[in-house]
Amino acid sequence: MIIQPRTRGFICITTHPEGTAKNVHNQIEYVKSKNITEEGPKKVLVIGASTGFGLSSRITAAFGYNAATIGVFFEKPAAERKPGTAGWYNTAAFEKEALEAGLYAKSINGDAFSDEIKQQTIDLIKKDLGQVDLVVYSLASPRRNHPKTGVAYSSVLKPIGESFTNKTVDFHTANVTDITINPIESQEEIDNTVAVMGGEDWKFWIEDLKAAGVLAEGVKTVAYSYIGPELTHRIYKDGTIGMAKNDLEKTVPTINNLLADLNGVSYVSVNKALVTQSSSAIPVVPLYVSLLYKVMKEKGIHEGTIEQMERLFSERLYTANGNVPLDENGRIRIDDWEMREDVQKEVDDLWKIVTSENIHEISDIKGYSDEFFQLFGFNYDGIDYEADTNELVEVPSIK
């Protein structure tokens, strides 16, 4: 079928298998070009492995350190004349290249919050790998069915306290407007968001993996977070999502206690603002990111997800001396270049003057839009989007 991009708000509802394969290939080639020589993970579980930071973590582990990887995710496969999700095609492309390189790569598709998927994962580790030495937790979901109580929780994206008004951009039209977001109506909205996006499920995974004996001596586990600049704090850091991320960070000591007898350790990595399916849904953030990209590209320090994850692994998690640099709150800060004083000063200056009339001149809104569509396999050079393509792509390890 011929597959063209079709959008509904901040979501692209079509995906192109050849484009997503190119995205995965480009990331693989980047990691291989780094010629990583330090020792690193050998058997890796990535929970939330099909897109964004999770996908780039899996690629870095496999093609940077020759690690065997198991990926867990919830994606929709293709049906005749109906493309699969981007994460499905990403995984198909990743597994194909991993197998061609002689690397072990298998995947599990299902609700990672459920006990059933946790058990399937444990069974696969026992059967094929024995144990894993790195667990990456990179789930991004708006809903969660609690595996113990059966209660369904939905997260909300709201400020706490007063309404929040600031600039935002429709990255499809480059129209800059003000947006007002009403605050939470009850504590329950915070609690629900924490239940979906906080640290409880990460803890459940580590508890179950440890009880099953599939965590190796010296195991590491890392979950991902974001803080961002003051101008986004009301909607992010100090809003409902921020409360969930605080809960994620509070889970670290609990997991460290769980892993103590294995000499294991857990971390939260604070990553850079990037174009992801999740970040595109957050008002204010797309405008901030388009300005940030402009500044960081001009300074030669721009990174995408793969550059971030390669640096996280090689300069933080697996350094030559074994030391993992942390901030005063015990977090890994791979957002260090984004939060540099000179970068934030320039972004703040641009924020004050950006309008619909000058956005193309003073921001990288085109780069933002291109990256958004590339998440779904579009806007890549060398691909004929007017030609027929086979939508029925299978993930080799999923029958």
Compile the SSE list and pairings.
Blueprint: E1 7-8, E2 11-12, H1 17-33, E3 43-47, H2 52-65, E4 68-73, H3 86-100, E5 105-109, H4 115-129, E6 132-137, E7 143-145, E8 152-154, E9 164-170, E10 175-181, H5 187-197, H6 200-211, E11 215-225, H7 230-233, H8 240-259, E12 265-270, H9 285-298, H10 305-317, E13 332-333, H11 341-353, H12 359-362, H13 365-374
Parallel strand pairs: 3-4, 3-6, 4-5, 6-11, 11-12, 12-13
Antiparallel strand pairs: 1-2, 7-8, 9-10
Q: TL;DR?
A:
Pfam families: Eno-Rase_FAD_bd (PF07055), Eno-Rase_NADH_b (PF12242), Enoyl_reductase (PF12241). The chain has 399 residues and is α/β, with parallel strands linked by helices.
Written overview of the protein:
With 399 residues, the chain is of the alpha/beta class. The chain contains 13 helices and 13 strands. The protein has a seven-stranded parallel sheet, sandwiched between helices. The chain has a two-stranded antiparallel ribbon with strand order 1-2. Strands 7-8 form a two-stranded antiparallel sheet. Strand 9 and strand 10 form a beta hairpin. Helix 1 crosses helix 3, helix 2 packs parallel to helix 3 and helix 2 crosses helix 10. The radius of gyration is 20 Å and the shape is globular. The model has no long low-confidence stretch (mean pLDDT 95).
